[in-house]
Specification:
The chain folds into two domains: 2-73, no CATH class; 76-172, no CATH class. The protein is elongated, with a radius of gyration of 23 Å. With 175 residues, the protein is an all-alpha fold. The protein has helices at residues 2-18, 22-38, 43-56, 61-72, 75-97, 99-110, 114-127, 133-144, 152-165.
C-alpha cells in the first residue's frame, strides 16, 4: 500500500512539473542558479547542472538528453570549443609577452581621444567574423584603463555595447 502511495505521489508530482509552462521552468532555473551561486558554487557548473535539469524537466527528458549530448559532440561544436580555447591562449600569450600593452600604447599615440580609444577597439574586433570576440577585446579594454579609473562592470558594458553595436561605447565613459 505504501509503495503505491509513493508511486502516485511521484507520478502526480512529475506530471505537475512536466505540465508547467516552459517560461516558469526557465525562470525557476535562473533564480536557482543565482541562489546556488550566492552560496559559493561555481557559476559554470551551476549553469551546466541546471541545463541538464531543464532537459529532464521536459516530458521526454531522457530522449532529449541523448539528443542534446549527441549534439554537444558534433564536430562543429567541438571546433567551437577549440577555437575559444585557442583564442584565450592567444590573448594570454599577448598579455604575458607584453605585446598587448605595446599595441595599446601605439594606439594611444594614434587615437588621442580616450573615449574613442575605449570604444573603437571592441568595435573593430566586433566587426571581425570570429567567435569569442568579446573574450579577445575585453583584455584590450582593460589594458587601456591603466589607472583603474573604471569599474570592471563599466568596462564590461563598454566592451559589450561597442563590440555588439558598433562604435557607441563612448557615451558610457565618464571623464
Amino acid at each position: 500500500m505504501r509503495a503505491s502511495a509513493t508511486n502516485y505521489f511521484y507520478s502526480h508530482y512529475m506530471d505537475w512539473i512536466f505540465n508547467l509552462p516552459a517560461f516558469i521552468k526557465v525562470i525557476a532555473a535562473f533564480v536557482s542558479i543565482l541562489v546556488i551561486n550566492r552560496f559559493g558554487m561555481n557559476l559554470g557548473l551551476s549553469i551546466l547542472i541546471h541545463s541538464i535539469l531543464l532537459v529532464f524537466a521536459s516530458s521526454s527528458g531522457s530522449e532529449r538528453f541523448l539528443f542534446w549530448f549527441k549534439g554537444f559532440l558534433q564536430p562543429s561544436n567541438l571546433l567551437l570549443f577549440l577555437t575559444i580555447f585557442l583564442l584565450l591562449f592567444f590573448t594570454e600569450s599577448l598579455r604575458t609577452t607584453g605585446r598587448m600593452e605595446k599595441t595599446v600604447e601605439s594606439l594611444k599615440g594614434w587615437l588621442k581621444n580616450r573615449k574613442l580609444l575605449f570604444s573603437s577597439l571592441p568595435a573593430l574586433i566586433g566587426l571581425l567574423p570570429m567567435p569569442g570576440g568579446a573574450l579577445f577585446s575585453a583584455p584590450l579594454v582593460d589594458s587601456i584603463d591603466k589607472g583603474k579609473e573604471l569599474s570592471p562592470s563599466h568596462k564590461a558594458a563598454i566592451n559589450y555595447w561597442s563590440g555588439t553595436y558598433g562604435n557607441t561605447g563612448g557615451r558610457y565613459i565618464r571623464e
